[in-house]
Design goal:
mainly beta; 2 strands; about 40% strand; elongated
């Protein structure tokens, strides 16, 4: 599906979304080819 050989490095990102009550709403797992993506993440602390 990704067009890479088995065992090739990939980016695996898992995101979990919750409700205000901390109840799990969804889990999303995304797999990306490591040779075609660059990720930049800015994290901020919420008050």
């Amino acid at each position: 599906m990704l067009g890479v050989a088995e065992g090739s490095p990939v980016f695996l990102i898992e995101r979990r979304s919750t409700l205000d009550t901390n109840q799990l709403l969804e889990v999303v797992r995304s797999v990306f080819r490591a040779d075609r993506y660059k990720f930049k993440i800015n994290l901020e602390r919420s008050s």
